[in-house]
Amino acid sequence: MEQRNFLIRAADWLEQRRALNVLLVFAYFIFIFLMHIPCALLSVFVERHLTLPVYNQVVKGICFVLLVAYLAFVFRQLNTRPDNRAHKITYLFLALGFIILHFTIMFEMNIEIIHIFQYSILACLLFPLTRRYGAAVCFAIPFMLVDEWNQYIKLYPGYVEYFEFNDVILDINGCGLAMITLYLAGVKGSESLKPIFQRTEFISVVVFALAVTVAVKTCFIALYTADKCNNTWLVLNIIKEPQFFWRKFPGRDAVYHIMQPVEAMVAIITLALFYMGLDSFRKPVPASLT
Predict the structure, then answer these.
(1) E strands, the chain, where?
(2) Nearest to 182 by CA among 124, 103, 104, 95
(3) What CA–CA distance (Å, rounded) separates 46 from 52?
(4) Mean pLDDT, rounded, of the chain
(5) Which DSSP symbol is given to 155?
(6) Which of 40, 144, 146, 274 suits a disulfide with 171, CB 3.0-4.6 Å?
(7) CA distance linking residue 117 with residue 135, whole number of Å
(8) Which residues pair with 257 in a beta bridge?
(9) How far is CA 63 from the centre of its chain?
(10) Kind and range of the H or E element at 273?
């Protein structure tokens, strides 16, 4: 009989209380939504107290300690639950690789890593509603986009000069890492899967891609200021300087890459499909391990 750890018990408990589960999803998202300004003020306070270079090093050190602890957890789970080991390891190291690459080239400052933790919790709350790892990642994407739209248009208009697709990509990988963690911990995904083309998450990604394409083609959404029309609702990038690969953050000693709109849309769809593979390429768990 498999040991029922906290993650297994929590997922099973929420699955049996779907109304409460949905309520928790939206309550948690509202919490994220409302905590931006308090968290930003706290971060600015700490940065001014420590200086940015020291603040970045402190965050990097904490991340290193957490990574070591997480890898120890992974090693234990792989030994305890050896089913689908190659699949788990492949997804784990690719997801960690995506996050480390993001950390290396797309951060204005290291505290942005908080996105991993914020959206990993949201994905864990979404998972019991479908019991599909990929679905939890895909169904978190609309929440991410609304969150970034709010920051771009409502919270920091004029200060933020582009839709933060960097953050959306980090959020998706945070969700993916959370689902890999559930997978490692023995939280079972659905064993009765439809073909991927018939799953709600796949259809939602296709609809998203088509909707964005139509919105751009009709100029309802403009990629850059130069593309703006009379009927434009949202311009995704209003940076005045030329679009180079690297950008220096104004007033800071930080050089990073901003994902351009088309590049980001391709990345979002690719990552969504990638994390759907957590369900599609699993093999049934042997009866001896259940």
Answers:
(1) 221-224, 234-237, 246-248, 255-257
(2) 124
(3) 9
(4) 92
(5) I
(6) 144
(7) 18
(8) 246
(9) 17
(10) helix 261-280
